[in-house]
């Protein structure tokens, strides 16, 4: 098994999984979707009662229920560093919460204003400020205010979608597109360049050539248009993956972590089998 990186941006990635199997491709997809640990807000404390600021009294109310605000905060991507943080249940603090397993944020705003994700201030390390600063949380009118303390902890999407780091993880077999050289210059074959909805072909020196095979959706329209001069198949040992992240981890961190988890789980399975036989 081998991985060829095609694109690795901050929040977007694509790669080829080569010399593998559909079972392995599916395992990798499911691991990326559900098993990558990330930090997300899990506990929110709301200040109750009046808030004084600049000699003016504000009410601790918003147009939304506290539960909705807590849910919105939970879905805000929180920067995650696997070197700095671990699961609370495995932490040296015994699950009470400490700088090794929790990030604390405060949110202190008075109306009129729109409360945004960027208003969440990390207590301590400023590098832990949320990157996506403009996610609207609530609209405050004059006289309204919020004072919130929120705690982020590590989790996985097996528990809740707020701990899902990778999105739109999809793969397909790498397409195999063959153009019959003897018929590559025929009018019906050349027509495929115009007709293909995914821009797979180009015409060079009067002949149809494959330019972007990974764009192919395998609709097979070109096979009938070219009267059999073009044949489209799928390679079930090579897979083309595409995915995005929510910004809490980079695309590379998600892929690296997924491979690490699969390797660890495989080793554990083999050792169980070896113990049993
Ligand atoms: S199968 Fe469809 S998408 Fe693929 S090359 Fe043919 S026409 Fe284009
Ligand atoms: Zn701890």
From TrEMBL:
GO terms of molecular function: 3 iron, 4 sulfur cluster binding; DNA binding; DNA-directed RNA polymerase activity; metal ion binding; protein dimerization activity
Cofactor: [3Fe-4S] cluster
Enzyme Commission number(s) from the entry: 2.7.7.6
Localization annotation: Cytoplasm
Sequence ranges assigned to domain DNA-directed RNA polymerase RpoA/D/Rpb3-type in this UniProt record: 12-273
A GO biological process held by the record: DNA-templated transcription
Binding site for [3Fe-4S] cluster: 216, 219, 222
SUPFAM superfamilies named among the record's database cross-references: Insert subdomain of RNA polymerase alpha subunit, RBP11-like subunits of RNA polymerase
Keywords assigned by UniProt, alphabetized: 3Fe-4S, Cytoplasm, DNA-directed RNA polymerase, Iron, Iron-sulfur, Metal-binding, Nucleotidyltransferase, Transcription, Transferase
Superkingdom, natural source: Archaea
Gene Ontology CC annotation, any one: cytoplasm
Xref: Pfam families: RNA_pol_A_bac (PF01000), RNA_pol_L (PF01193)
Function of the molecule: DNA-dependent RNA polymerase (RNAP) catalyzes the transcription of DNA into RNA using the four ribonucleoside triphosphates as substrates.
Subunit relationships: Part of the RNA polymerase complex.
Similarity comment text for this entry: Belongs to the archaeal Rpo3/eukaryotic RPB3 RNA polymerase subunit family.
Protein name (Swiss-Prot/TrEMBL): DNA-directed RNA polymerase subunit Rpo3
Originating species: Candidatus Methanoplasma termitum
Gene assigned in the entry: rpoD
